[in-house]
């Protein structure tokens, strides 16, 4: 797996004090193989490695105090650059109706994504209309009607006996008459790219002159996604790409290549089958996912900015004496919160972001629950957790609105932590202060 491979490589680098050119060569060879295994386009990989080499070889890394970290930073930065550094938004017409044309192969997720996007646009206060131009796939119209209903966006259709170009034209009239300001055209796909399909799409394009032609591609198809993107771009001129099914096991190799090969930005990513599962594309998140290790440097920077040095010293002393209590715990949580949403931090912690990107939101909530539980303790209880008997736990559960199991779990985790600290400080005593915390 790419992420674990890269992690191994970086682990080796991290152990080094100074990095030699030879070390770098070996490391980059591994990075190259790992990227290729993740289905990243060969030419893209080659250029990528070359860029890293140019940046890394020489002063920048050699004279640095932590060369391993520098390489991590460079690889991360270049991955992000490869996918287009900034987040690309949709273009809306300055006046009149904005037309968005969804194109792509069959099963890529056009219909689903059209509804997802319509929902998103609607939530921005606009009035979108979905248009059913897939007259070939059986039940395509019903499918769009169904998802349109789910997101509460009207669907314009004329059955299957009308030419898609005429449907598209008629929908624009309808939108004008009924005050819609965004029209989303759900077009037909084919299993493979063919002339007939492209001609039809070209006709729709020339009669509607859409602001956005968005290609929907399936991340799971890996290298094929890149070829598809190239073909559609050559025929139609794309404005952007939506990459779907990134919730699957795809490592994102396709996302890496599509931008590099077509030079068209990925604007959104599909993270699930549900109609809320569409997210703006964040190159840095995909880079983290591909690296599987998070942006260690940012985490370190943020931590340094925000954790009060003196408090950290005090905590350190408490850790040593294993006197850490719930008051300290709470204080530490406040410090962590200052660094920004925990969901952002999680992604920066090596080894933790193997969880699906979509799951991450939960952790902010989780943190609030923990806080609620601790805040429901009396000061006495916080300073002296051994006071926490059953009736006190019940009161805390009630006070925090969490159930008793959750309270128990937190206390148990806390006790385990204390035990660990005791063992830890015991182990350190023998070292006569040589051991530097942490
Ligand atoms: P179309 O032929 O391009 O219109 O594709 P559809 O919108 O009908 O989607 C094909 C299948 O892919 C459906 O089962 C969708 O639920 C599924 N799908 C679409 N987007 C995503 C996504 O982001 N994640 C997952 N897991 N499934 C998706
Ligand atoms: Mg469809």
How would you sum up this structure, described in words?
Helix 7 (about 140-150) links the parallel strand 2 (about 130) and strand 3 (about 155). The chain folds into 3 domains: about 1-80, SRP54, nucleotide-binding domain (Four Helix Bundle (Hemerythrin (Met), subunit A), Up-down Bundle); about 100-290, P-loop containing nucleotide triphosphate hydrolases (Rossmann fold), CATH 3.40.50; about 295-430, Signal recognition particle, SRP54 subunit, M-domain (434 Repressor (Amino-terminal Domain)), CATH 1.10.260. By secondary structure, the chain is an alpha/beta fold. The protein has an 8-stranded mixed beta sheet with strand order 3-2-4-1-5-6-7-8, with helices on both faces. The two termini are about 30 Å apart. It has helices spanning about 1-15, 20-35, 40-55, 60, 65-80, 110-125, 140-150, 165-175, 195-210, 225-235, 255-260, 285-290, 295-305, 310-320, 325-340, 340-345, 360-375, 380-385, 390-400, 405-430, and strands at about 100-105, 130, 155, 180-185, 210-220, 240-245, 265-270, 280. About 55% of the residues lie in helices and about 10% in strands. The chain has 20 helices and 8 strands. Helix 2 (about 20-35) packs antiparallel against helix 3 (about 40-55), helix 3 runs antiparallel to helix 5 (about 65-80) and helix 8 (about 165-175) runs parallel beside helix 9 (about 195-210). Bound molecules: guanosine-5'-diphosphate and magnesium ion. The site of guanosine-5'-diphosphate has 18 residues, from helix 6.
């Amino acid at each position: 797996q790419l992420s674990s491979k890269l992690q191994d490589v970086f682990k080796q680098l991290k152990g080094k004090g100074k990095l030699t050119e030879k070390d770098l060569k070996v490391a980059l060879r591994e990075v190259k193989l790992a990227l290729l295994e993740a289905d990243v386009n060969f030419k893209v990989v080659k250029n990528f490695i070359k860029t890293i080499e140019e940046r890394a070889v020489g002063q920048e890394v050699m004279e640095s105090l932590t060369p391993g970290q520098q390489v991590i930073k460079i690889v991360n930065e270049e991955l992000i650059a490869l996918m287009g550094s900034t987040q690309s938004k949709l273009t809306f017409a300055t006046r009149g109706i904005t037309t968005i044309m969804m194109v792509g192969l069959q099963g890529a997720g056009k219909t689903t994504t059209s509804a997802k996007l319509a929902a998103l646009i609607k939530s921005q206060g606009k009035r979108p209309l979905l248009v059913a131009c897939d007259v070939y796939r059986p039940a395509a119209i019903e499918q769009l009607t169904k998802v349109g209903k789910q997101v509460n966006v009207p669907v314009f259709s004329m059955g299957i006996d009308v030419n898609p170009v005429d449907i598209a034209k008629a929908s624009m009239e309808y939108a004008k008459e009924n005050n819609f300001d965004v029209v989303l055209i759900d077009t037909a796909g084919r299993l493979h790219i063919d002339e007939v399909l492209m001609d039809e799409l070209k006709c729709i394009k020339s009669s509607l002159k859409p602001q956005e032609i968005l290609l929907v591609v399936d991340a799971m198809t890996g290298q094929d996604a890149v070829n598809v993107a190239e073909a559609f771009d050559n025929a139609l001129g794309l404005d952007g790409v939506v990459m779907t099914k990134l919730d699957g096991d795809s490592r994102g190799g396709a996302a890496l290549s599509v931008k590099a090969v077509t030079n068209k930005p990925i604007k959104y990513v599909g993270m699930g089958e549900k109609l809320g599962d569409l997210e703006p594309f964040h190159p840095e998140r995909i880079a983290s996912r591909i690296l599987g290790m998070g942006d260690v440097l940012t985490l370190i920077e943020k931590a340094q900015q925000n954790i009060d040095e003196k408090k950290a010293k005090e905590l350190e002393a408490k850790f040593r004496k294993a006197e850490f209590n719930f008051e300290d715990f709470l204080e530490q949580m406040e410090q962590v919160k200052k660094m920004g949403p925990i969901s952002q931090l999680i992604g920066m912690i090596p080894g933790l972001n193997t969880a699906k990107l979509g799951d991450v939101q939960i952790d902010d909530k989780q943190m609030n629950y923990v806080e609620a539980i601790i805040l429901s303790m009396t000061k006495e209880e916080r300073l002296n957790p051994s006071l926490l008997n059953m009736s006190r736990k019940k009161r805390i559960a009630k006070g925090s609105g969490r159930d008793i199991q959750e309270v128990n779990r937190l206390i148990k985790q806390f006790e385990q932590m204390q035990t660990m600290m005791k063992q830890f400080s015991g182990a350190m005593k023998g070292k006569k202060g040589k051991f530097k915390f942490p």
